[in-house]
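Quick one from the shared queue. A colleague (R.T.) flagged SWIM-type domain-containing protein as missing a structural entry in our internal table.

Convert sequence to structure tokens.
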Amino acid sequence: MTALQTKLKFTQVTPRTWSTLGSTGNIYTLNLLAGALSCDCLAGKHLRTCYHIDQLAKTFKTELNASLIAPQDPLEITEDFDDRLVLSTRRRFPP
């Protein structure tokens, strides 16, 4: 596996800024502005999509997909006393 194939680790600096350590030991800053990611690496400075942007975008996608997974507790449909349907989760608590 080459250095470019390793997964980067990102540190969120502000709500729209992340930093990461590049394969050469440089620290790069990524910004989310107007819905687009930018990076201060050489490729990013030439307005190209770099490896750092690709990896941060994949991280976003992974985290978003994980948050959209159905809850672990099964949903149960019950009828309330006034005949309205109520959704609730079955949770088992210790006795």
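DSSP finds two helices and six strands in the chain.
The first strand starts at residue 10 and ends at 14.
Added to the table.
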